[in-house]
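Q: A reviewer asked whether we had any structural model of the full assembly, not just the individual parts. We don't, so I'm hoping you can provide one. Inputs are below.
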Amino acid sequence: MATKSGILGLIIGVATVLIIVSAVGENTDSQVSEIGIVEESGFSQSCAETDCYTPSVLTIKSGTVVTMTNTDETGVHTFTSGTVDGQTPISDGIFDSNILMVGDSYERKFSQKGTYDYYCTLHTWMTGQIIVE
Ligand SMILES: [Cu+2]
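A: Here is a predicted structure for the entire assembly that you could use as a starting point for your response.
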């Protein structure tokens, strides 16, 4: 009997380890997200009708690290949290990439649930949203 329960204990132990490993693996996959910038967003306000950021609305789980990259090879941009009233940007101070040269990135971890609006300080028609669930 002692041997049987020993084997059973070993099986339960291995199964527990496998469950923990697979759960950690899933979390790692879902906790990194990326936002880029649509080409030529700085030249024309027309992207405001489609998307200036890609995706312009990103929904993530809390704890996710978002990498914001200037993927527009034609200009410099920012990811600055806050809203734009007409042409007037109103920063809320939650995050700011400052000016990103072409190919540069800014990373931020979002731990608090909520909706985060952001814009580009150089082109105030460029707006986006990060929703943390
Ligand atoms: Cu811009």
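A: Points you may want to mention in the reply: The beta strands are 32-37, 53-54, 57-60, 64-69, 80-85, 88-96, 105-110, 114-119, 127-132. The domain at 32-132 is CATH 2.60.40.420 (Immunoglobulin-like).
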